[in-house]
Amino acid sequence: MTPRQNRQRDRAGRGIPEATVARLPVYLRALTGLQERGVATVSSEELAAAAGVNSAKLRKDLSHLGSYGTRGVGYEVEYLVYQISRELGLTQDWVVAIIGVGNLGRALAGYGGFASRGFRVAGLLDADESIVGQEIAGMTVQHIDRLEDIIAGHGVSIAVIATPAGAAQGVCDRVVAAGVTSVLNFAPVVLSVPDGVDVRKVDLSIELQILAFHEQRKAGGPDGLASLAAGDAPPGAKQYVETVEA
Amino acid sequence: MTPRQNRQRDRAGRGIPEATVARLPVYLRALTGLQERGVATVSSEELAAAAGVNSAKLRKDLSHLGSYGTRGVGYEVEYLVYQISRELGLTQDWVVAIIGVGNLGRALAGYGGFASRGFRVAGLLDADESIVGQEIAGMTVQHIDRLEDIIAGHGVSIAVIATPAGAAQGVCDRVVAAGVTSVLNFAPVVLSVPDGVDVRKVDLSIELQILAFHEQRKAGGPDGLASLAAGDAPPGAKQYVETVEA
DNA sequence: ATGCCTTTGTGAATACGCGCACAAAGTGAC
DNA sequence: GTCACTTTGTGCGCGTATTCACAAAGGCAT
């Protein structure tokens, strides 16, 4: 962390911990749910339960935005929705392009959670000639050649990459060169980008693998029958595959 | 403490940090990539670069699995692939059911990353009569009424929930009652489950919101024109919306 | 106004994760 | 065998995150 960021840390609005930022959207969702049900105020205990976190953590998170609660009462739902939205930058629209219109790209194009949070999809792009021209979620798929035009023309600042793994880095380089400074990557590769560009990754199979790890643990862990034979074999022992399958 | 004692403690003691577990799939992917290119050994520096992490962190992560490297040489790719796979529980098959066959469910059903890692999809289920019976990714969509049959019949241990938000908790309760102990949730709700059941969440719009936060920061942060008027207004000030739009 | 009750905001303690830097361990040349 | 070189495995310090626990603050009844 730079000294500059450090200096601003005490003041609400800057220096919000990354862990807190990651939870704000969860709080926001819980709050909009309460709002729709006509709830006017909520205590940290109730909101924390709805968001699935510890109430002290919730209060500390919110305290980073400022003192928006009333002791003895709780938080005003509508006001908190506004403050969190503002902090997250959702009081303005963000223009998004989706590159790669396979199964996942289609799902993303039709995903309601984007539009409802101020994310406007400016274009769907693909390299496959048989997909270009198709109408998906009310939009016509455009050829990847038009990438730079669309980014510049619509002021796209966030690119969603849903291409095959092999194409992702190339696409990423192009969108960054065209001025995009935030990338949401669904392709199973590690993207490298210059400083100043943010990348977030969503990998469906990684989440499943983490679940498998814990699932295995519940069932007795990896040190079962197999590892007695193979687990402590020294590096260079080539027969481990056969051993575990024997 | 000797390295050997240390290894026994970690391997026997389930001491693998959650942060490490979350990175193992990334290492595994990088390693299989190297394997396909015929690379036999790799140094922590090279592998770390491929995985996008610090090399010391990589070495520490791998040390939790045991001492599988050779000083002065590096790690044997094939052996490491096997050890990580074993630790993650990927040397056995996991049976998965996908509930909710909307856009996202379809994308998941066709996602290659599942099958290639030992995750077998035993069924696609939906409540919508017009979807039931459709053929998707080589499977016939079944009615949600058959949920319990399918879970018991195929030994499903992991459920993937891709339903609308409103249906997710109900589906979750049913799959848990039917014996599922791991849930991957794509619905934008916080699921509550009994102890012993793991839930992981993937939320597409949360990732975008986090990007928006950083994007806004690059552009000057939320403390711009608006917040000078409204940002520090006390709770109870009702005119904040008008203020920010004025 | 006073006192009781509720709930926030936060200091303090603890746990966790990260990365530097280096000793230990292994390889290969001669 | 010995020496130079490479790379692992990890001790250590530092910063961040989480949780507890409580004083301070506000509401409300009387």
TrEMBL record, chains A, B:
<comment type="subunit">
    <text>Homodimer.</text>
</comment>
<dbReference type="InterPro" id="IPR009718">
    <property type="entry name" value="Rex_DNA-bd_C_dom"/>
</dbReference>
<dbReference type="GO" id="GO:0045892">
    <property type="term" value="P:negative regulation of DNA-templated transcription"/>
</dbReference>
<keyword id="KW-0238">DNA-binding</keyword>
<feature type="domain" description="CoA-binding">
    <location>
        <begin position="89"/>
        <end position="190"/>
    </location>
</feature>
<dbReference type="InterPro" id="IPR036388">
    <property type="entry name" value="WH-like_DNA-bd_sf"/>
</dbReference>
<keyword id="KW-0805">Transcription regulation</keyword>
<dbReference type="Pfam" id="PF06971">
    <property type="entry name" value="Put_DNA-bind_N"/>
</dbReference>
<dbReference type="GO" id="GO:0003677">
    <property type="term" value="F:DNA binding"/>
</dbReference>
<dbReference type="InterPro" id="IPR058236">
    <property type="entry name" value="Rex_actinobacterial-type"/>
</dbReference>
<dbReference type="GO" id="GO:0003700">
    <property type="term" value="F:DNA-binding transcription factor activity"/>
</dbReference>
<protein>
    <recommendedName>
        <fullName>Redox-sensing transcriptional repressor Rex</fullName>
    </recommendedName>
</protein>
<feature type="binding site">
    <location>
        <begin position="100"/>
        <end position="105"/>
    </location>
    <ligand>
        <name>NAD(+)</name>
    </ligand>
</feature>
<keyword id="KW-0963">Cytoplasm</keyword>
<feature type="DNA-binding region" description="H-T-H motif">
    <location>
        <begin position="26"/>
        <end position="65"/>
    </location>
</feature>
<dbReference type="GO" id="GO:0051775">
    <property type="term" value="P:response to redox state"/>
</dbReference>
<dbReference type="GO" id="GO:0005737">
    <property type="term" value="C:cytoplasm"/>
</dbReference>
<keyword id="KW-0520">NAD</keyword>
<comment type="function">
    <text>Modulates transcription in response to changes in cellular NADH/NAD(+) redox state.</text>
</comment>
<dbReference type="InterPro" id="IPR003781">
    <property type="entry name" value="CoA-bd"/>
</dbReference>
<dbReference type="InterPro" id="IPR022876">
    <property type="entry name" value="Tscrpt_rep_Rex"/>
</dbReference>
<keyword id="KW-0678">Repressor</keyword>
<comment type="similarity">
    <text>Belongs to the transcriptional regulatory Rex family.</text>
</comment>
<keyword id="KW-0804">Transcription</keyword>
<dbReference type="Pfam" id="PF02629">
    <property type="entry name" value="CoA_binding"/>
</dbReference>
<dbReference type="InterPro" id="IPR036291">
    <property type="entry name" value="NAD(P)-bd_dom_sf"/>
</dbReference>
<dbReference type="InterPro" id="IPR036390">
    <property type="entry name" value="WH_DNA-bd_sf"/>
</dbReference>
